[in-house]
User: What shape does this take?
Amino acid sequence: TLTFTVSSTAFTNNGAFPKLYTCDSTGISPKLSWANAPVGTKFYAVVMHHIPPTPPNHVYMLLYNIPVTTTSIPDAVAGVGIFGQNTVNPTLAYTPPCSQGPGAKLYTITVYALSATPVFSVAASAVTRDLFLAAIANTILATSVINVTYTR
Assistant: This one.
């Protein structure tokens, strides 16, 4: 069987995250594409987060309810899916990482292939990564991850 994979033409797994997608530049969301979703996939979701030395996790993008017919998102994605909360500011959008302190920081982008749309007991504007992960726990058919690093 084929493996569900996520990729980008802008960076590679375990590679450097381009400045374009950070607060040191325009800070737009990264272009991504995915392939080989399992049979039964109805929706996709994309989460980008960072695990700092001390909790909580930082969430830069939570984009869900991406239709199964969509297998890529462009730079500065708009009009596709529903944005949940990021942990940096109160907007329902991608927010660029703005790493603090010395050294490379690791950011993880996960694409989920889901068998159903998540159901929440809160308004869409209140959906956090934790609520999202709980809502999709029984509908995840596959995941694919790209890890990237950024050094300021």
Observations:
- The mean pLDDT is 95.
- Residues 118 and 134 are 9 Å apart (CA to CA).
- The chain is about 5% helix and 35% strand.
